[in-house]
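ok so for the tutorial part 2 we go from a plain amino acid sequence to predicted structure tokens. step 1 is just haveing the sequence, like this:
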Amino acid sequence: MNYISNSNDLCPIIKRKYISIRRLCNELQNYYPILIDDTQCHYNYNDYKISLYFNHKYPFKPPTQIRINDTEINYTSVPSRLLTYYTTVCGYNCPHCSSYLHKKSWKPACTIKQIIHQYINFTDKIKNIRNIIHFINVLQILKNMPNEMERIIISYII
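step 2 — the prediction. this is what the tokens look like for a chain of 158 residues:
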């Protein structure tokens, strides 16, 4: 394990050989990344423990895996009911297709910080939708509410 305070601490041979490591070190220099080897890095960001797994094609290809507090970023594991509310009722795009990690959305200018913020924003929205679904279920038990009323309430809450 190597503690890297900035990219100048890296051996010049490693810096030339792996643009991915140089890019990560420059991008994360304020967060004191710990380079495990030439394919993984760990650091703390706010209250989150971030683990990055990447190949030598980074930043031209997205990281192969990112874990936040030991949970892998995964947009495809959202339960179908939540995903239906997320896309149809709330009007958001498919979270997987619109994520920075999707191969069609990835650009070398995307930063790890952008990916983390996007995922945290997504998980916050999913938590809100869970609360909304619970609220609507309670209301429907009390009274059969029309779908249009349901959409109005959701748009107000969101």
